[in-house]
Structure formats: C-alpha cells, structure tokens
Amino acid sequence: MTPAKVALVTGGGGGIGSEICRHLARAGYRVVVNYQSNQAKAQSTLESLAHEGHTLFQASVTDSGPLAAMAEHVAGQYGHLDLLVNNAGVTTPVPHGDLDALSDEWIDRIMQVNFRGAFATIRAFKPLLLKGTNPVVVNISSVAGRTGVGSNVAYCASKAAMDSMTRSLGRALAPAIRVVSLSPGWVQGDYAGNFPPEYIAEQIRRTPLNRLARAADVAAAVLAIAESFAFSTGCIFPVDGGRELL
C-alpha cells in the first residue's frame, strides 16, 4: 500500500494557514500543523481537519533548535515529507514614505521570519523531502515582492527575497525537490479587517477580478501546485486577481 502523503504547514493556525491545512487534509494528506505561539488557534485547526493522522507541533521558524526537533517529530511519526508549505510570516502597516516609522527591530523581525525562517525550514526538512514522493516546497509569497506595494518596505523586500530564494533553490535542489512561490494579492481576512472599508474598496477596484482573494483561493492553488503542476519549479504563481494589470 502506498503511504499517505505528508504535508507540513508553518503558521498553520492562521487564516490562510488553517485553510491550506483543511484543503490538504480533505485531499488525503496527513498534515503537520506548525504554530509559534497561538496554541488555541492551531488546536482548533487540527480538530477541524478531515480524516486522521494529523499532528500539531510548536516551533519558531527563526530558531534552528526547535526546527530540528520538529523534523525529528515528522521523521518519527511519518518517515518522510512530501509537501512543505512555508506560510509563517509577519508584518505591520507602515507608510512607505515614513522611513523613521519602520524601526530596525521590525525590519529584522520581518526578514528573520519571512525570509530566513523559510530558508531555515527548507534546510531542516530537506532530508525528509528527499524521502518523499515528488516532493515540493511552496513558499507563500506576495504580489508585494514584485510590485513594491505592500504593508511596509521591509515586507516587500522580504517577499522579493523569498521569490529570489525560490528561483535559486528551484535550480539547486532540482530534480529531486521542486520549489515554487505562490504569490497572492490582498487576502480577505483578519489582516485586511484592520484597514478602513474605503481602503479595501479601493484595493478591490484595482483588482480586475473585482474582489479580494479568499484563503480558499490560496489553499486551492497550493494543492494544485503540489498535485497538478509537476513540471514547474523555480517559478512564481500569482493568485492576485490580475492585480498587476492595473
């Protein structure tokens, strides 16, 4: 019998992460839900997953020790990894022109989580991915990495760095492991809810498909990349409703 496919989703308790976990579980994956601090949300995500065999693991993607422990957990529980979704990320809204408002602390934190954390997770799980079936890494990026328009300058830079890493590792890890970036535009959810309705309406107006992305759009794209785009690597898949066209 072919063993079930295994997926790890970092930041799995968040709005996008939890939806990715649910999509993958329904598709038959055994899902490892990673979280850093909000155990209640991660536990709720775990309990919402279809089928059995899923697990929860607390680890910061910025700390190599816990990442190694999480890799040991996955090795002991499943023996391999087929899909790694680097979804953990942080940001804070800062006007791009207000250079003094973007503190050194926030710059460092954003780059550590969004870029370095994704790289460190790939590094920690490379041996298990090599044991998987058609293994793939999906980095959850953002249209901000290409447009330079986003919550702050450091966030845009971190996603551009993630996309550059995707290209580099898509080449370096081929043909054994595929590496792809998934690049949403604005996503409807808790973060978008922090902005005034008129601002969100403007973002919708600037999107040719005339709505924000939903977490389910991102999750469906992750599954499609893993299951249907087997000859794609080192590339950036947009899920932005055509945002760059306007």
TrEMBL record:
Record's protein name: 3-oxoacyl-[acyl-carrier protein] reductase
CDD domains to which the protein is assigned, alphabetical: SDR_c
Lineage, uppermost ranks: Bacteria, Pseudomonadati, Bacteroidota, Sphingobacteriia, Sphingobacteriales
Keywords: Oxidoreductase
Record keyword Zinc-finger present: no
Family of the protein in this entry: Belongs to the short-chain dehydrogenases/reductases (SDR) family.
Coiled coil segments of this chain: none
GO function term, MF aspect, one: oxidoreductase activity
Residue ranges occupied by any Ketoreductase domain in the UniProt entry: 5-189
